[in-house]
Amino acid sequence: MTIIFHCFITTNDVIQTINRDYRNKDAVTDVISFAYNETENIGPMNILGDIVISLDRVKEQAKEYGHSDEREFYYVFVMDCFICLDMTI
User: At a CB cut-off of 8 Å and minimum separation 6, what does 21 contact?
Assistant: First the structure.
């Protein structure tokens, strides 16, 4: 079985638009995930979902928390992978 998810790296402006249009929250956020496992997958591939990350916000948060941009990126990425897998941290 093949497992697929999509990861989009974007800006604060774009993630705010997605947040507003799909979640009715007109604000910037670091990451948004859309888990597909709430519906039945059809076919030979298991599509977990989409992860959208604002690289701008990741850099802002890294500075706020006092660690590297890379560490913050992987933190939000892995956190939302767990969400797409229907797991909590």
Answer: none
Backbone φ and ψ for 41, nearest 5 degrees, come out as -80, 140
Are 56 and 62 a contacting pair, CB within 8 Å?
A: no
Strand, coil or helix: 50: strand
pLDDT tens digits for 11-44?
A: 999 999 999 999 999 999 999 988 776 556 555 5
DSSP string, 22-43: HHS--S--SEEEEE-TTS---S
Residue 51 in tokens? 């992860």
Q: Please give the model's pTM, rounded to 2 decimal places.
A: 0.84
